[in-house]
Write a structure and sequence with these properties.
The complex is a heterodimer.
Chain A lengths: L2 H22 L4 H29 L4 H24 L5 H30 L5 H29 L12 H21 L3 H19 L7 H23 L2 H24 L4 H6 L23 H9 L3 E6 L1 H5 L3 H13 L3 E6 L9 H8 L7 E3 H4 L8 E5 L29 E6 L19 E5 L2 H16 L1
Parallel strand pairs in A: 1-2, 1-4, 2-3, 4-5, 5-6
Chain B lengths: L2 H21 L7 H11 L3 H11 L3 H31 L20 H16 L1
Helix pairs in contact in B: 2-4, 3-4
The chains are: A alpha/beta, B mainly alpha.
């Protein structure tokens, strides 16, 4: 091994270490920014080393240089522009797009390598074929699947599950084509065969994500993230580059953990989400008698309750994000805090459209992160809370989850019903994704405030100001 | 099975375990930036895209190399930029207190963010 090879390998190890350290520093909001800088340093090192390898090899043609630099510049410009301009509410779409291009690039690396090996006519080693196939299949599925997911999140494609008769047969057929052609490729080197694998995998990605409903998007994005990581690791196997293998494995692990956390928070198995389109309404069996009556409340009364409370917990749900009301809620919370009210936010793991989404939306509205509390930490606090203010959250507050035999039985929920009083801001008595009545709304301690989240919060803040300001 | 493949597999499996260990300690508050950070890390595929440009010698090869480089560069540059942008918003206390949570801190320049880092460090020791 030459000195040059030694140095480059050691630098790759250094950059891989930076990735691990960077991820490690994300265990605390106070160090997370430094973590991102450490990770960036690792990435710059890895790219610089690769550039040195490219130059040192001396094999690259002028056209090769032009193509590489032009591609990198175009990609960087697009990436930087979208990163700078994206709305925080649109973050899931952007992450999904990055998954798509990452998976796509990984697949292209393997495809190119396969074509090159096939051209030499010497045949391709079985181990290379297997890793190439894994890379191409996972990468292509991620590419098309992530594009569909981004389209659904952006509203370009309907977010409701798209199914058609025989959809499952089509999926099985595509899987059979991929596996069958893959087996054939292990026996013989064939470019048309590889093309079939690519096309069938792309089709499979589409047919996998289309039937999945909007409510399940946090799981789907996490899963596709894990796929991208795995595809990149496989690309590392194909071209024999450890930096790609390590980085890909780290991302695969991260995506895997988040997928599991999201699925648990929704009380559903990953298989169940992928196999069956959810939210089809078959769980909405005869709403178990709207037993209690509903009390509604006006802005003035709600404002007085909040202003004279000593502890308030705000429970934001997707309705808050949809109404883009994070700035209004932060303004109301600031006003209450300045009166000496202890304010915090209880955030359910699936409160947004991707893991942790709600925290980012609130951070954008200048909510200090120590006020953002995770479900397990905040649940014991509800019993000591004077007013729980629920904004556009539904199923995750439904006490029915604690009983057996309901559509959400066993789902982890926020113990909002333990608070001394509850105010729910909601547009109507409509159901959440699970399609069942929320028993919290008929609780005698609960007052319903029927309005759009943004208007309601602005009105509440105004009322607090005029009444007690 | 070649020994090179065995080494690659070992590295892959151990990295997976390191990943599980490190990432399971990230709080839910930071899960979106975490996913975005993971996203930028898989932008390392840019290294792969650069290496295929070396062996490209025909039109198909050049097109593949171009698209792969563009995809990977968008991934890595965009990923790091947006992660940094998100993490910048996480503050222990808003840079401009009171004033009803206005946009003042949105334009946080060098001075307030530096003080935020300082107070964060203090909080960690405390």
């Amino acid at each position: 091994m030459s000195t040059f090879a030694w140095v480059t390998q050691l630098l790759y190890v250094l950059s891989a270490s930076c990735f691990v350290l960077g991820l490690h520093q994300m265990n605390n909001p106070a160090t997370a920014r430094r973590g991102n800088q450490v990770s960036t340093t690792g990435m710059v090192t890895a790219i610089a080393v690769t550039l040195a390898i490219v130059i040192h090899s001396g094999a690259i043609s002028a056209t090769g240089w032009a193509v590489m630099i032009a591609g990198a510049l175009v990609g960087s410009a697009i990436g930087l522009y979208s990163a700078r301009t994206v709305q925080m509410t649109a973050m899931p779409q952007l992450v999904s797009m990055f998954n798509a291009v990452g998976g796509g690039a990984a697949a292209l690396v393997a495809i190119h390598d396969y074509i090159r090996l096939a051209d030499t006519g010497a045949g391709v080693a079985t181990s290379t074929t297997v890793t190439t196939l894994l890379d191409v299949i996972i990468g292509s599925v991620t590419f098309s699947g992530s594009l569909i997911a981004a389209g659904k999140l952006q509203g370009v494609i309907t977010s409701s599950p798209v199914t058609f008769p025989g959809a499952r047969v089509v999926n099985l057929l595509l899987a059979a084509v991929v596996l069958g052609t893959g087996g054939f490729l292990i026996a013989t080197t064939s470019l048309p065969g590889l093309l079939v694998v690519v096309l069938a995998s792309l089709a499979f990605g589409i047919s996998m994500v289309m039937p999945i409903g909007g409510a399940d998007m946090p799981v789907v994005i996490s899963l596709l993230n894990a796929f991208t990581g795995t595809a990149v690791a496989m690309a590392g196997f194909v071209i024999g580059n450890w930096a790609l293998i390590i980085a890909g494995a780290l991302v695969g692990a991260s995506g895997g953990i988040l997928t599991k956390l999201m699925a648990d928070a929704m009380n559903r198995s990953i298989r169940n989400i992928i196999v069956g389109g959810f939210g089809t309404g078959d769980t909405a069996v005869a709403a178990a008698g709207g037993s209690g009556s509903i009390q509604s409340v006006a802005a003035d009364d709600a404002a007085i309750q909040l202003a004279y409370a000593s502890k308030v917990i705000i429970v934001p749900g997707y309705g808050l994000a949809a109404a883009q009301a994070q700035h209004e809620v932060a303004a109301l919370a600031d006003m209450l805090e300045s009166r000496g009210v202890d304010v915090s936010y209880a955030i359910h793991p699936v409160a947004g459209r991707m893991p942790g989404h709600m925290n980012v939306l609130l951070a954008e509205a200048n909510v200090p992160y120590p006020q953002l509390k995770e479900m397990d930490d905040v649940n014991p606090e509800f019993a000591r809370t004077d007013v729980a203010l629920v904004i556009g959250a539904n199923d995750v507050t439904n006490p029915a989850a604690r009983r057996a035999g309901t559509a959400i039985s066993g789902m982890p929920i926020l113990d909002v019903d333990q608070a001394k009083s509850i105010i729910v801001i909601k547009r109507s008595m409509g159901h959440g994704y699970a399609g069942i009545d929320n028993e919290l709304y008929t609780d005698p301690k609960t007052s319903m405030y029927f309005a759009d989240a943004k208007t309601a919060l602005a009105d509440l803040a105004a009322a607090v100001k005029t009444l007690v300001g | 099975m070649t020994s090179a493949l065995l080494v690659d597999l070992t590295i892959f499996v151990l990295s997976l375990w390191v990943g599980f260990e490190v990432i399971s300690k990230v709080p839910a508050t930071l899960h979106t930036p975490l996913m975005s950070a993971a996203n930028s890390i898989h932008g390392i595929v840019l290294a792969g895209a650069m290496l295929i440009a070396v062996t490209a010698d025909n039109a198909v090869g050049y097109v593949l190399a171009f698209v792969a480089a563009a995809f990977a560069a968008a991934n890595v540059v965009g990923g790091y930029a947006v992660t940094g942008r998100m993490l910048k918003m996480f503050k222990r206390r808003p840079a401009a207190p009171a004033a009803g949570g206005g946009q003042a801190a949105g334009s946080a320049s060098a001075a307030p963010s530096a003080s935020a880092v300082e107070s964060n460090g203090g909080g960690r020791r405390g």
